[in-house]
Design goal:
The complex is a heterodimer of chains A (437) and B (168).
Chain A (H helix, E strand, L loop, with lengths): L7 H11 L6 H22 L10 H11 L16 H16 L6 H12 L5 H8 L1 H10 L4 H12 L16 E6 L2 E6 L2 E6 L10 H16 L5 E6 L3 E3 L4 H5 L4 H20 L5 E5 L2 E3 L1 H4 L6 E5 L3 E3 L10 H5 L1 H4 L4 H7 L3 E2 H7 L4 E3 L4 H11 L5 H16 L2 H14 L3 H11 L13
Parallel strand pairs in A: 3-4, 4-6, 5-7, 6-8, 7-9, 8-11
Antiparallel strand pairs in A: 1-2, 2-3, 9-10
Helix pairs in contact in A: 2-3, 4-6, 4-7, 4-8, 7-8, 9-11, 11-19
Chain B lengths: L14 E5 L4 H13 L4 E4 L2 H6 L7 E5 L4 H14 L2 E6 L18 E7 L5 E7 L7 H11 L3 E6 L6 H7 L1
Parallel strand pairs in B: 1-2, 1-3, 3-4, 4-5, 6-7
Antiparallel strand pairs in B: 5-6
Classes of the chains: A alpha/beta (437), B alpha/beta (168).
Chain lengths: 437, 168
């Protein structure tokens, strides 16, 4: 990885702080020392499966010694740029090829290495949770030994993709449930919810609101689920409320029904959810799609993602951003609610909408890393944290409701109708009688 | 040998005899780890000293470098006959099949010892596929029950698994 251009301290920090390994690769090499490592390498080579090129050993140790990395290794910004999944893939590939040649139970081997590394899950389990097709792609892009990619590819070629297919290096519980255009998948230890209406940029019509709520409920009730990942299919997380749906409201009654039966139940489900919620954003998160992110515990976004709460531009309001947004994010969110300006991923990071910005091809991996990371603490502690957070968020329900009720009220006005119509006809809205400045 | 009664960090369980010296890193690492876990260790420098080791009730774990086996063979054979024991030979410099354990083949359990993340001891036990005694399982349970991270491998020796994991 260092050869691929990643700074050594970033590689080490990625292993320790992203993958939760007790020590990074450079620290491990230094801890083993020359005598022991060369002895191990000789043995491994004699066993015909050398993990270390003996000729490069002195150079490797010299590099490791010369790095003088701080101990313990602190997190660094650059660690988010490291393809950490290839580290997992390399160890998993090594163990996989090893397990096929010795009479050790795969699971026992994985648990042994898990405890050796001090990580929440073993390397093979981690690779399965990431998805073996993703791990192969990561290994193929890097400078890692091709034999590790070969070992993982062999499993993928059998159609065994890991937790998302129920079988990878290990066996997993896998379920797929379609809640309309929302896909719910149990992938071993986490639930994956996919907003699957890409042709409408995952805009939230009635079916999407209902489906998302049902999927979140299903995840909350399943004891096997330790974390919930939510993502959008295609080039948007969600473009927000479906304007065509709103344009069909005949009057206040329809708006109230949407508010009472769809909007508020989903917001309550989201804000008071008892499992860690992780949003993966790679593309557009506008309007309601952006506002929903305030209910998540971790938001991972790609560098190319764009955010906005542009409802005022179509005669509406962003009810979540304006009611609980200033409390959760601070004063600056008001500017974006008033102007509808677009927000880059970096700005969203500064505002606190987003927790981590990563390259677009790493959003998925980093999301799964968080799903694994929340498996490290005591389950009871995680549950209690979420209960306390839910209580804090429920204290915001009154002001949130004030915001959403205002959206309902405004929906009966001429400006709202004009805004929606202008949006659907792709023209600029006219807020003022002709002749006004 | 009943290993179920052993608990971690308690000065109970089998007596551990280290024959010869702390040759190589596996024996050194294992001895350091056992001491940290308050397990009694007796270092036996010579065959004569082994003869002098009293044979009280209770099991023993005998740890030795395979290259010292010939030197200790006679006394060790007598000792093993007099006391239920696990014979553990270190595999720092050899693969299991390369080690000439005659006449202890079928009795000795190969091992490599490491220190894992956060200092937790890790031990890999390697035995031939046709190993007939209960010694590998007993060693596995003994080490696991005192809190070590243990892997039992049967059949061909792949070399140090820890090194593969850490260096890959």
């Amino acid at each position: 990885m260092v050869e691929e251009g990643s700074p050594p301290e970033a590689v080490e920090a990625a292993a320790v702080h992203r993958l939760c390994f007790g020590l990074g690769p450079i620290g491990a090499v230094k801890a083993l020392g020359y005598r022991r490592l060369s002895s191990m390498a000789e043995l491994a080579e004699r066993a015909d499966r050398s993990p270390v090129d003996l000729n490069r050993l002195p150079e490797l140790l010299k590099v490791a010694d010369g790095l003088n990395l701080p101990d313990p290794v602190p997190p660094v910004d650059g660690m988010w740029l490291v393809r950490a999944s290839s580290m997992v893939g390399a160890v998993a590939g090594e163990l996989s090829s090893l397990s096929s040649k010795i009479s050790a139970d795969r699971s026992a081997l994985d648990v042994y290495v898990r405890d050796l590394l001090g990580s929440p899950v073993g390397p093979m389990a981690f690779a399965d949770l990431l998805g073996l097709d993703a791990v192969v792609r990561s290994l193929e892009r890097g400078a890692a030994s091709p034999r590790w990619a070969d070992a993982v590819r062999k499993v993928v070629e059998r159609g065994e993709l890991g937790a998302k297919s129920g079988q990878g290096f290990l066996r997993w519980h896998h379920e797929l449930v379609l809640e309309g255009r929302v896909r719910y998948e149990l992938c071993g230890t986490y639930a994956l919810i996919t907003l699957d209406r890409p042709e409408k940029l995952n805009a939230l019509d009635e079916g999407m609101w209902k489906g998302l709520r049902a999927a979140l409920r299903r995840a909350a009730e399943d004891e096997r689920v330790r974390a919930v990942l939510v993502r959008g299919q295609g080039r948007a997380f969600s473009a927000g409320d479906d304007i065509a749906m709103m344009a069909e409201w005949k009057g206040l009654e329809d708006a109230r029904r949407w508010h009472d039966e769809l909007l508020m139940p989903l917001l309550r489900e989201l804000l008071e959810h008892r499992k860690p919620l992780i949003a993966l954003v790679d593309g557009i998160a506008f309007g309601g799609g952006c506002e929903l992110l305030l209910g998540f515990d971790v938001v991972v976004a790609s560098e190319r993602s764009l955010f906005s709460v542009p409802e005022t531009l179509i005669g509406a309001i962003p009810p979540i951003a304006t009611s609980i947004g200033p409390t959760l994010l601070g004063r600056k969110v008001i500017r974006f609610a008033l102007t509808g300006e677009w927000i880059t991923a970096e700005e969203a990071l500064r505002l606190g909408i987003v927790d981590v910005v990563v390259p677009h091809d790493q959003v998925w991996e980093v999301g799964v890393e968080f799903a694994v990371k929340v498996m490290r603490p005591s389950p009871q502690s995680v549950r209690t944290v979420k209960e306390v957070v839910a209580a804090q968020r429920s204290s915001l329900m009154q002001i949130l409701s004030f915001g959403t009720q205002n959206l309902v009220s405004i929906s009966a006005t001429g400006e709202f109708r004009e805004g929606l119509e202008a949006f659907l006809r792709r023209r600029s809205p006219s807020w003022f009688p002709s002749g006004s400045p | 040998m009943d290993v179920r009664c052993m608990s971690s960090r308690a000065p109970v369980g089998p007596e551990v005899l280290v024959l010869g010296a702390r040759d190589g890193w596996s024996i050194a690492e294992l001895c350091d780890a056992l001491k940290r876990y308050v397990i009694r260790l007796t270092e036996v420098g010579s065959p004569d000293a082994l003869r002098g080791v009293e044979a009280p009730e209770g099991p023993a774990v005998v740890v030795v470098d395979p290259e010292r086996l010939t030197e200790f063979e006679g006394e060790l054979r007598r000792f093993l006959a007099s006391r239920p024991s696990i014979l553990m030979v270190s595999l720092d410099r050899h693969l299991r099949h390369e080690v000439d354990l005659h006449p202890f083949r079928g009795e000795a359990v190969g091992f490599r010892a490491f220190r894992g993340a956060r200092g937790r001891p890790a031990v890999e036990l390697v035995t031939p596929a046709d190993h007939k005694t209960e010694a590998p399982e007993l060693a596995f349970r003994w080490l696991r029950d005192i809190g070590f991270n243990v892997l039992l491998l049967r059949g061909s020796d792949p070399g140090p698994v820890a090194a593969r994991a850490l260096a890959s």
